[in-house]
Design goal:
single chain; 134 residues; alpha+beta; 2 domains; 2 helices; 4 strands; 35% helix
């Protein structure tokens, strides 16, 4: 069985390499990789791998034939932070966070009173209709 050669076009987005497509023709794979690198701004890098597979030996050889990374914009150097002068004014004291138990207790109390009120209304209506049926 003769060795077969294929070309994988892979792209890197957000640090993750993904297989985009495979080609049987080297020039087509290289042209497509160049186009993808130039036109797609969301791609960080493009590479083409040549893979030769020998079915008789059940072996594959892979080599990188194209690798292009998008030029990162130059980063500005950070300016050293100016030292702050401490003032004589006292610093405000942080207030402790409100306890969530108080809010929960208010909610629970409101629920109990509401359910009790509905229960009393139902009992009153039942007694009223019982009185009417006598």
């Amino acid at each position: 069985m003769p060795a077969t050669t294929s070309y994988e076009l892979q792209t890197r987005r957000n640090g993750v390499w993904q297989l985009e497509t495979t080609f049987e023709d080297k020039s087509t794979a290289l042209n497509e990789a160049r186009k993808m690198h130039q036109s797609n701004k969301h791609v960080d890098a493009v590479k083409v791998l040549e893979e030769e597979y020998d079915g008789a030996a059940n072996r594959a050889n892979t080599r990188l034939i194209f690798n292009k990374e998008r030029n990162e914009e130059p980063r500005r150097a950070k300016k050293p932070a100016a030292k702050k002068q401490e003032s004589a004014a006292p610093k405000p004291v942080a207030q402790p966070a409100k306890s969530q138990k108080k809010g929960f207790l208010k909610y629970l109390t409101l629920m109990v009173v509401s359910v009790a009120g509905i229960g009393l209304a139902i009992i009153a209506l039942a007694l009223y209709f019982e009185y009417l049926s006598l």
